[in-house]
Amino acid sequence: MCNRVGGSISILVLLLLNTRNCSASIQYDAPGKISFNSVQAWAVKLGTELYHFGEFITRKKEVQDSFKSAQIEVRDGEKLVQNMADDIRAMMELKISAVKRIVEAAENMAFDKQNEPVPEDFQFYNSKEMDEPYDDVSLTTTPEPEFNVDNWIVRPPTKSAHLQANPHFSNIPVNANFSSVHVPTNVYAWAPEVIKGIHWSEGLDTHFINNYQSDPTLSWQYFGSSTGFMRHYPAMKWRADPVDIYDCRTRAWYMEAAASPKDVVILVDRSGSMTGQRRDIAKHVVTNILDTLGNNDFVSVMTFADTVEEIVPCFEDSLVQATLGNLRELKLALDNFETMEIANFSAALTRAFELLEIYRNNSGGANCNQAIMLVTDGVPYNYKEIFERYNWKYETPVRVFTYLIGREVADVREVKWMACANRGFYVHLSTLAEVRERVLEHVNVLARPLVLQREKHPVVWTPVYANVTDPKVADYLWEQRERAEQKERFLSQRRDKVLFNSEKEQDRRWRITQMKQGQYSELGNSQYQLMTSVSMPVYDLRHNEMRIAKLLGVAGTDVPLSEIQALMTPYKIGVNGYAFIVTNNGYILLHPDLRPVFQQILKPSYNSVDMIEVELFDDDRGPRNFSKELTALRKEIIDQKTGNKVMNVKYHLDDMKRVSRAKKHYFWTGISDSPFTLVVTIPENYGRHRITPPPTDDIHRLSLTSKNISARQYLSDKWSVHPDWLYCRHYERTFSSPEEELLYFLERVAKPGWRWPAKPRPPEHHKNKQGHERHNNGTPETKDRNKVTNSTPRNEYYCDHGLMQALVYDARNTAWFNKSISDSASDEKASEFIQRFGYIVAFLSTHSGLTRWQTHPPREQDNVRAEFGKQWPRSIDEVWYRRAVEQHYVDPLSYVYSVEINTDKFPLNISNAVVTASHAVFHGDGYKKAPAAVVGFQFKHERLSEWFENITSSCEHNKECVTCLSDTWDCYLVDNNGWIVVSEDVTQNGQFFGRIRPDIMTKLVEDEVYKAVHIVDYQAVCFREKKTTNPASKLMTPLHNFKIITSWFVSTTLWFYNSIALSLAQASSYSFDDDYVTPTVAYQSYENDEENDDSYMSKPTNMRTLERDFEKLVLINRTRPTPCDREMFLYQLEYSNLDAKLNKPVKDCERPFYAQLVNYTNMLMIVVDASCPREEASMSFIEATEVQYNESLPCLKHVHPLYRKQPTSCIKNHTEESNIDMCGRGSLPSSNFFWIIFSTFVTYHHL
Q1: How far apart are CA 355 and CA 377, in angstroms?
Q2: CA-to-CA distance for 507 and 501, rounded, in angstroms?
Q3: What is the per-residue DSSP string for 1158-1202?
Q4: CA–CA dist 217, 563 (Å, integer)
Q5: Whose CA, among 27, 408, 607, 1099, lies 20 to 30 Å from 95?
Q6: What is the DSSP letter of 905?
Q7: Collapsing DSSP states into helix, strand and coil, what is residue 981?
Q8: Region Disordered: which residues (predicted)?
Q9: What pLDDT is stored for residue 207 in this prediction?
Q10: Helix (H, G, I), strand (E, B) or coil at 457
Q11: What is the spatial distance between Cα 988 and Cα 628, in angstroms, rounded to a whole number?
């Protein structure tokens, strides 16, 4: 690699000037014009001086020499992806083994103890009521009112425990000595079946603790009961704000393990009798059914009266995949159907059976369970002939579940018979409060074949999800923000009406709104921990002569994606390479471009991002017009085949402000016994080889030969390591930083007796299925079975030998970088540069994740910004590192210059702005070479501006000439992506050049100097305006207002009485409805929040009348975050034949600018004749705009479906299921029949 310093630079300058003068010899200077030769000379001089300074301050030659002894290794992509897949599979086996032990223990304990009486003084650790060490006030749900009633049953208080923050569990205060229990808001903890389960499951603590001791990488472990409670380890305080809507039975890990995939057709009666509360209950039933579906399920929702219609018209005659986006579309459409006419049950049932038959015959959809959910307030007869024709002659492949709505129903026999005769379940519903619990009955019915076969416990891996956050909360959080904004606008208008109504203030507020609705600067993702979970069903092992087949629940454990990512050994993949995981549905489990959050809120469809939506093929196709080559690649990956392919791709950088295009090599292989496929992507040119230390540089050997001197001596000051990489991890100690943990292990490596720990492997799991049968003989062997059989020794730490070896090699060979620059250069030269540039930071970052930096002059701390290595510690993942390596193949001598981007959302503070320059250092061995490190420097932006001004204000040979000081000429430095690095107008620095001079940028694109690269963001969020009701149609008379107030008072009083009476009934006997009830409507209230959205805006009160007096400027347009596609054009400098494109003269105002490449940089010097009028140009800006389709995005995806692979496990039938009689249950008791009917009448009349 060439190195130009001293005299070589002078010679090079003369050669370049002579070459460029030859090409421009035909041009002549014009009076009042800047000459072409002057621009060339400025570009050469600026670039050469910057290069000379960069070589000096970064000491690049010494860095190159530091890697002379390194070896160049061929990067074998196929071997790399296979090794990673094996490591991930071994980790997954550890998690599966832990879950298997929980399952076996739970089944045995339940068999022996679930019929034991619960002591009256029994106490348990209630997650909602535990005290945190630093919280005096509970931050969970709103406390229930305390009723002073004589016969109120006093329950024992929850156990108290000491909690302590634990870094392994995201610094959440926990207690690892036991588990605690979460009980959903809609479940009564002391209902007989619930408290029995809480009681017997306490024995799981021993197994939770032992699992954690044998595998310290385990995250949360849990057992979710079919009765609703969830026992989780370790114990913690459950925090949910504003309301706890968590129910483990609606989470993906529970739903997918409890039953095999299913096709579901929901039929909703919209006849004239389904009005008022019945309609509300029916909508709530459908919503709750949809909440029990996952990505492997398919669904259709139809309403029927005289005709049968899909609730979403574009989903006609089809089942849609139950993704978050499709379910959201279905739920929103439920508000639109109207009740009228007479129900045609024959047409509805026939339509549903025929649709399911088509999918069954074509092996489409879920291709496993099938079910019809009928929601109605009554049927005229049982329609036996339809079931005979479509279901019974095929051995009843379709289950029928019926939901009878309303208390005053005449006859339930026909509705119940329809469910019982078709392997389903019947439910009678009369209140919103009981809907959630009753709807979940169908999960237990679908689980019966699983329970009856007993032998197989399917292992289920979930798609990506965010810890305990319910995706439905996203709409609520956005609504709260808009309410806060609305309140602020009212108050601002009241304080100063003139200022508020001014055009300047309205423009400012409009800009703020636009910035708030951007989604690319998604800071704050850290509050969500993305993970997948592995789970297995837990069966009730009692024999079928009891005529039950009960699912006890589901056991599982979480696997944070960060743990999987650490196993992908990114240092082996290298810069601009990455690994990602794809599910059987083609969705991303893990990918560096997965962006699940906008403005600290989860996106509505964050867990169903397809791989084809993040891997962008470099072609000119329009949005969602995916090439056959890309879809073929996707199919092979989903099918878990092993292969590789080279493709031209484009990808964005720097928060979607820059773009790059490259040829990349894809390698993929399936992860066995899982629905996942691992893909590794490597750049085709510099990704073929990697740097490795020589074999003689073993860490431990070096320590021993150096008389036990630790390698930490090479890491003394101003250094950092990649915070996300797994160098060494201690499972029993905590450290304040990754650097502290690394130093600890470097000390241990230097001591005698050190051994590199082996990778943990799953212990042998004792599969004693015969043990279940011994329960039937009454043999007393349960104690032995419940004992922990795992005796695997616990590793207290784990280290990546290869990464530690590379890091120590880099640290030892670059230890000299800590010396001051003045120690390796003449004092005169150092002082000259320091005087010119002021405060400078020189940095070095290596392929092993080590980053070093030095400040000149030395300074203990920068009061303006964080230290370099603390602000940019991610080494090869930093933008300046990635761009420098790419630039090496454009010009191996050049540096990449950039300035912080200046946008409306993040304006640039130019007084504190810095310029960052980076350069890739490659190490070569014959024809092979690989990136070893990146060097660079930072200095104040104002210094570069002064330097640029000094050079562009000078003339050749001290002649008089026109320079950039002239008012009629504007001069810029623009980087290779079109962003202004330096401008005479400081407010333009960091902005996109096409925004400042769209006419000039357009000509540069036309001349193919820049290429406009079309990028589509398929993970975008748009903001649809909410529809609000208009109450002005009612005449607001004082008498009408009095009527409303009276009705509200009466209905509220009656509701309060009924709540007390119902609670008393639950607490005293719980004899009705078999097991338990749902005493609270908190979840229902939240679910219906959209309808009651801002009650002051939807209810006909005087407030709305007063509101109309406010000016329209005060009211905001209320919106709803909605998944959408956004497109933009990002720009990239085209280096091919660049001189010929740039060496063009100024043609008056037809081409009023010069453009020249600044030597050894990624920048163009653009000199514009400002005296020429600016032409109007339609510039494709970098701002993203929504792609307008002719239909909604869910409809478009449905019309153009992508390939998916169906799950392998399907258990849908069992011969013994016919022995089960239980197929339905009634509604709540009628002890308060009169009061409930009367309050319902008053409330309905009021509404």
Answers
A1: 24
A2: 10
A3: PTTBSEEEEEEETTSPPPP-----SS-EE---SS-HHHHHHHS--
A4: 8
A5: 607
A6: S
A7: strand
A8: 757-792
A9: 96
A10: coil
A11: 43
**Bridge-based pairing state of the strands 298-304 and 320-321:** antiparallel
Q: Decide: 898 and 880 in contact? Cβ < 8 Å.
A: yes
Which residue has tokens 């039953």? Answer: 259
**572 token code pair:** 């082996």
8-state DSSP, 126: B
Give the residue from 567, 594, 579 showing the smallest Cα distance to 669.
Answer: 579
310 token code pair? 């899909």
At 1015-1073, the pLDDT tens digits run 999 999 988 887 654 444 334 444 445 544 555 455 455 445 444 444 443 333 333 33
Long-range contacts of residues 901-909, Cβ cutoff 8 Å, at least 24 apart: 901/654, 901/655, 901/657, 901/979, 901/990, 902/988, 902/989, 902/990, 902/991, 903/991, 904/511, 904/514, 904/515, 905/515, 905/518, 905/521, 906/521, 908/989, 908/990
At residue 555, the pLDDT reads 97
pLDDT at position 700, please? 55
- The angle that helices 36-58 and 941-952 make with each other, rounded to 10 degrees, is 140
Q: What is the helix (H) or strand (E) element at residue 403, kind and residue range?
A: strand 398-405
**Which residue has tokens 């502290």?**
740
Residue 1072's φ and ψ, nearest 5 degrees, are -85, 165
State how far Cα 629 lies from the chain centre: 27
Distance of alpha carbon 1240 from the chain centroid = 43
Token pair, residue 806, equals 């590379």
The predicted model scores a pTM of 0.86
CA atoms of 843 and 848, how far apart (whole Å)? 15
**pLDDT tens digits for range 103-157:** 999 999 998 887 788 898 899 999 988 876 554 444 444 444 454 444 445 677 7
Residue among 682, 645, 680, 678 at smallest CA distance from 662: 682
The 3-state secondary structure of 243-293 reads CCCCCHHHCHHHHHHHCCCEEEEEEEECCCCCCCHHHHHHHHHHHHHHHCC
**What length does the chain have?**
1247
Structure tokens at 974: 């623009």
CA dist 553 and 232 (Å) reads 13
Q: Which amino acid is at 1107?
A: E
For residue 433, pLDDT over 80 is answered with yes
DSSP 973: E
**Rounded CA separation 324/335 (Å):** 18
- Cis before residue 242, ω within 30 degrees of 0? yes
Single out the residue of 1113, 973, 1054, 1019 nearest to residue 1234, CA to CA: 1054
Pairing of strands 298-304, 262-269: parallel
β-strand partners of 1128: 1015
Residue 540 has phi, psi (to 5 degrees) of -85, 120
DSSP code, position 647:
E
Confidence of residue 1094 (pLDDT cuts 50, 70, 90): very low
CA distances from 272 to 284, 342, 376, 412 (A): 18, 6, 11, 19
Are 870 and 891 within 8 A, CB to CB? no
Say whether pLDDT at 514 is over 70.
no
Kind of pairing, strands 914-925 and 896-899? Answer: antiparallel
Say how far apart CA 220 and CA 212 lie, in whole Å: 9
Query: What are 527-580's pLDDT values in tens digits?
Result: 788 999 999 999 988 765 556 778 999 999 999 999 999 899 899 999 999 999
Say what angle helices 770-777 and 77-113 make with each other, to 10 degrees.
0
What single DSSP character describes residue 796? S
Alpha helices in 666-763 (DSSP H): 699-705, 738-749
Instruction: Give the whole-angstrom CA distance, residue 912 versus residue 1142.
Output: 33
Cα–Cα distance measured from residue 577 to residue 390, given in angstroms and rounded to the nearest whole number? 54
- Pick from 928, 1022, 145, 300: which is nearest to 605 by CA? 1022
The side-by-side arrangement of strands in the sheet containing 578-582 is 588-590, 578-582, 677-683, 658-670, 643-653, 616-617
**Gap between the Cα atoms of 96 and 89, Å rounded:** 10
Alpha carbons 132 and 649: distance in angstroms, whole number: 50
pLDDT of the residue at 181: 95
